[in-house]
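Give me the fold.
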Amino acid sequence: MNQRTGSVGLNLSAGIASVAVALVLVVLKLWALGTTASLSVAASLADSALDLMMSVGGLMAIVYAARPADEDHAFGHTSVEDLAALAQSVFILISGGVIGWSALRRLLADDPAPLAGQEGGIVVMAISIALTLALVLWQRRVARATGSKVVSADSLHYMSDLMPSIGAIAALWISHQFGVGQVDSVVALAAAAMLVIGSLRIGKGAWDALMDRVADPELIEGIAGISRDWPGVKGFHDLKTRTAGSRVFVHIHIELDGDQTLREAHAIGAGLRRRILETYPQCDVIVHKDVAGES
């Protein structure tokens, strides 16, 4: 219980930090866009605006997923994390398409609009990079500790913000120094491509979980190894897993000596379950007991 409470607290801290950073970035980039009229800054602003919307949704998903199981949701509420991640991927995909189309139109225009106020825009984008990097580092730490798909997805699309932000600085600097405004559109196109690729990656992970795809093969093999070597277990079968948000549900049938007492059989199964949970705290484990040779 304490470990679960700690995981919820970490996820909440990451969600609140994400909302706060996204809000600051939107305000800063709005000012930079009004000053520079840069499409690469607009691309970064659109991404941050989506970040804010998705971060708020992600925080709500984290709060909802932390609710305990009830009569209507016997396996808990963690699947909402996958729904939130899937929604994030759709929004990111749309954003990438709009930005890419706008960049292509400006790139092919006979007389593209000139950029202005590049120095202020560069300062804003540099602040954006520093804030984003700090957030990503914290989110990755939380995701490793809790296995939250929402935090992991949030971290991925914030990480994808870094390259467009760096590209926007380069575009603004080149435009200021050499008057080459087309670089701005090229950077925006690259940013759009990164958004599309990232959205597909996030969406696939969320879709796999919603379709009850099995857990990571390394985790399955680890559970199999623990069960295979556990004292009193003569064999096992029907090891089945599925993921839901940050949780992995595990069902396993173990084969025991049919002549031992019920208390002895229970002790073996309970001990195995505890060991699996100690090794993989993100799991929810059900151990079925069968008589060896009769399953």
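Residues 217-291 form a domain with the Alpha-Beta Plaits fold (CATH 3.30.70.1350).
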